[in-house]
Every structure is written in structure tokens, then in C-alpha cells.
Write a structure and sequence with these properties.
With 103 residues, this protein is of the alpha+beta class. The protein has three helices and five strands; from the N terminus they run αβαββββα.
């Protein structure tokens, strides 16, 4: 969803279809277990900050140096809304939210 700011994307993620029914460049959305399994298996990421009121979770991997922001939904699905490299667990989680445009 090129050109969409992260706050708008976070709002839109609440109603996006899962990726098996995606259209265009929609963020990857799937059941929570699939999202967490993919992040753990493919990137060795683990939850870092999951208590945010805006419904996002930060996942990160010291081994791979990657980070991912996930928008959770009440219907047991989530969407990956941002990701990047350069993860360091010595940095405050807020650094990654700011990098993605969420404060």
C-alpha cells in the first residue's frame, strides 16, 4: 500500500482481508498463529512490546537484526504493517515505532 501513512494503514488493517484473498500490495494479514509462527521460524523474531494501546506489537530478533510491527485485530488475525533491519534490544521499543511513523 505504497504512499499510505502508517497511522492510516493501522486503521485500515482492521478490515483488510487475509493475504490468501489479498488484492494488490496489501499488507500480509493472517491468523495470529500463522503470523507468530512465520516471524519465529523465518526471522527468529520474538515479541518485544505487546502492551501498546493502539493494538500493535513489536517483534524483534537480535540474531537476524530484523524487526516487525504487527497490527492485531479482535478477530484472531493480524497484519504486518512495517518491518526493517537494524534491531538492537538495547534500543527502546519506541525507536522502532517512531521509525515506522507511529508515536
Amino acid at each position: 500500500m505504497e504512499g499510505v501513512d502508517i497511522a492510516t494503514l493501522l486503521n485500515q488493517a482492521q478490515s483488510l482481508p487475509t493475504s490468501d484473498m489479498a488484492v494488490g500490495d496489501q499488507p500480509y494479514c493472517a491468523v495470529n498463529d500463522e503470523i507468530s509462527s512465520t516471524l519465529k521460524h523465518d526471522f527468529n523474531e520474538a515479541p518485544v512490546d505487546v502492551s501498546r494501546r493502539d493494538g500493535t506489537e513489536l517483534w524483534g530478533s537480535d540474531q537476524m537484526g530484523t524487526w516487525t510491527l504487527v497490527a492485531t485485530r479482535p478477530d484472531d488475525t493480524s497484519c504486518i504493517i512495517a518491518s526493517g533491519i537494524g534491531y538492537d534490544d538495547r534500543k527502546a521499543a519506541e525507536v522502532y515505532y517512531t521509525t515506522a511513523g507511529l508515536r
